[in-house]
Q: What sequence folds into this?
């Protein structure tokens, strides 16, 4: 396979082998299944059963339960029996790390086991070892000896298996040869998959999770490519972004990673890992899946109308930003800009700008500027009657711009046909709005080729929107046209979750492939006013511009294209968790949210936490009841700190490492 999917222009699901998990069929074009994982202590049968039921009632089609040792694996029988007694036959999955014995017990009891190839046989020591080819082959033999018994049990009992690679918990052996890379993740799974295939065991699902959507997307794409080359077929894919966090950030990160792959037809089951109660993950999963069920219905058997791509001018397996001209502060080496859309506002006052990062002080007549402050303000037909902060410029309709007094501050927005006919342009910066499906969009290509003042604002009226915009950017690349591109996405969905998913997928998928020098999100605020999400209000959208501004910056942060705030990598928690993860995450967030660019991991257990913190700068990890171990990178710096003072100690650690700044008023 040259790429990683059947088509970059038509919506087509990737053909995968069919796998049976209890009575549930997965892969081979079956519906995309949704699942979650319990956070209760596996030894607490009733609590685990009741939480599983809440997840099943919310729509989970599989429920995963941690089995850290033999006793938890054995207790899965009690959990399964109690669920059956209450009328629930939903397949259960045992989550295994480090304990083959527990896996072998669980595989005889429940429908599926998940193993992590990074730690199934190997204990991670973070050692760099140079293996000769012979030593490497001996290591593979050692894995075969330890893994084959589980494969045989699964085969005998009809149990399914997920080989679930996590970026960050790759074995020292894989790290030594491939590094912490998407290729290392793929090879880690392939070693186990080859052993299973040799035993003619195929009831397998694969995953390539990372807390960084960029790494995650590349790894899944590469996995499909490698499987097709080596076996001529694909096993089903379980999609997920690990340690995505909570609230809107968790939803945005998950939607970018999972949605980018679903857009291209990859993915047979999904889990959205949020640091929230697991039943709240399911509506987000369903919203994600729904987009593609309705996409299939909208397109039907028709073709999407997006022309085939003759040549892919970029690698989908590694990140390279598209080369663009520098036009004012857009494109070139500038971080992607954010456009705040105030077209529908009746008036615009000083205080309205607070929602987009500019706080006005009446006494000093000055603005203070936040890290997440928009770069451009689209006013439609309005001209402002006050002086703007230095870093904020205005985009207005071309007819309004002609009358605007300050041409250093105001720039015109043309529709594509308007641009083709006009005779009045800005000498420095002209925005052109382009529906990539309109015939004028093709005509425009020749006109803008030599115009180094043009920034295209691309949007699509095609139901297969993201691929149609991608197709247009590919045209630009293939024709050597280097004008910057702002990704414009309008969402009229009726819930906050749906809007977040729509924005994140349609812009995030392109940003992950290096396309996009800015982002311009629009919505219909009335549709989502004051909504509660997943049973709790994590965001009130009385202030819609703030919602849009936060979402724009969060998408850029999640795609790692513009860092404007602290990055949290928090695990979803499970039966191994040693403290209240949701409460602790909120506490740490409240004192560190002003530390722009610092990556803080909050992990529930010392067994998996350190491995899965990925590229966090600092780690706060549960290491015993009431005990926290603090990390700087992968290095332990304070062991078994009393949890009552652990947040204070984390702040001290940040200070000792010059990662702390005091909050400004
Ligand atoms: S890191 Fe969190 S989710 Fe992962 S095993 Fe530990 S407690 Fe469970």
A:
């Amino acid at each position: 396979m040259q790429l990683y999917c059947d088509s970059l222009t038509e919506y087509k699901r990737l053909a995968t082998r069919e796998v049976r998990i209890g009575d549930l069929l997965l892969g081979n074009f079956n519906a995309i299944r949704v699942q979650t994982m319990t956070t209760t202590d596996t030894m607490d049968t009733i609590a685990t059963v009741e939480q599983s039921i809440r997840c099943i009632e919310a729509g989970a089609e599989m429920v995963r339960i941690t089995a850290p040792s033999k006793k938890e694996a054995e207790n899965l029988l009690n959990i399964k029996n109690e669920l059956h007694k209450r009328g629930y036959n939903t397949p259960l999955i045992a989550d295994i790390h480090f304990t083959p014995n527990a896996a072998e017990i669980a595989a005889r009891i429940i429908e599926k086991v998940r193993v992590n190839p990074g730690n199934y046989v190997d204990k991670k020591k973070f050692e760099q070892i140079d293996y000769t080819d012979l030593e490497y082959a001996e290591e593979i033999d050692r894995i075969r000896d330890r893994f084959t018994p589980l494969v045989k049990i699964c085969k005998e009992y009809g149990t399914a298996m997920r080989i679930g690679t996590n970026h960050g918990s790759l074995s020292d052996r894989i790290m030594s040869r491939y590094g912490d890379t998407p290729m290392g993740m793929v090879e880690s799974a392939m070693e186990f998959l080859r052993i299973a295939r040799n035993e003619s065991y195929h009831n397998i699902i694969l995953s390539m999770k990372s807390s960084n959507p960029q790494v995650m997307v590349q790894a899944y794409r590469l996995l499909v490519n490698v499987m097709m080359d080596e076996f001529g077929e694909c096993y089903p894919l379980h999609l997920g972004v690990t340690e995505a966090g909570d609230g809107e950030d968790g939803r945005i990160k998950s939607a970018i990673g999972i949605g980018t792959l679903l857009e291209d037809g990859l993915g047979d089951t999904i889990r959205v890992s949020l640091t929230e109660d697991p039943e709240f993950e399911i509506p987000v999963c369903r919203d994600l899946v729904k987009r593609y069920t309705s996409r299939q219905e909208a397109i039907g058997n028709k073709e999407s109308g997006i022309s085939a791509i003759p040549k892919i001018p970029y690698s989908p397996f590694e990140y390279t930003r598209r080369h663009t001209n520098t036009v004012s502060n857009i494109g070139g080496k500038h971080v992607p800009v954010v456009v705040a859309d105030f077209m529908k506002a009746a008036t615009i006052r000083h205080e309205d700008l607070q929602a987009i990062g500019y706080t006005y002080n009446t006494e000093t007549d000055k603005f203070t500027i936040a890290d997440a402050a928009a770069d451009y303000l689209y006013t439609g037909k309005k001209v402002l009657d006050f002086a703007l902060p230095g870093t904020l410029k205005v985009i207005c309709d071309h007819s309004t711009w002609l009358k605007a007094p300050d041409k250093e501050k105001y720039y015109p927005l043309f529709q594509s046909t308007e641009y083709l006919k006009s005779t009045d342009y800005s000498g420095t910066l002209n925005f052109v709005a382009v529906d990539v499906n309109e015939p004028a969009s093709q005509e425009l290509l020749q006109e803008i080729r030599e115009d180094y003042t043009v920034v295209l604002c691309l949007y699509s009226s095609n139901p297969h929107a993201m691929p149609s915009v991608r197709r247009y950017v590919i045209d630009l690349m293939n024709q050597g046209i280097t004008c910057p591109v702002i990704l414009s996405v309008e969402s009229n969905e009726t819930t906050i979750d749906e809007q977040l998913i729509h924005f994140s997928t349609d812009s995030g998928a392109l940003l992950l492939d290096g396309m996009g020098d800015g982002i311009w999100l629009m919505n219909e605020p009335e549709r989502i006013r004051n909504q509660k999400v997943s049973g709790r209000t994590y965001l009130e959208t009385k202030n819609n511009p703030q919602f849009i501004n936060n979402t724009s910056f969060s998408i850029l942060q999640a795609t790692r294209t513009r860092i404007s705030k602290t990055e949290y990598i928090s695990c979803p928690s499970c039966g191994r968790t040693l403290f209240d993860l949701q409460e602790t995450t909120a506490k740490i967030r409240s004192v560190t949210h002003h530390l722009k660019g610092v990556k803080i991991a909050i992990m529930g257990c010392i067994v998996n936490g350190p491995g899965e913190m990925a590229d966090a700068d600092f780690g706060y990890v549960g290491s015993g009841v009431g005990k926290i171990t603090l990390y700087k990178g992968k290095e332990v710096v304070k062991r078994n700190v009393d949890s009552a003072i652990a947040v204070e100690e984390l702040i001290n650690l940040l200070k000792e490492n010059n990662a702390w700044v005091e909050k400004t008023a």
Observations:
- The longest strand covers residues 635-642.
- Residues 21 and 500 are 31 Å apart (CA to CA).
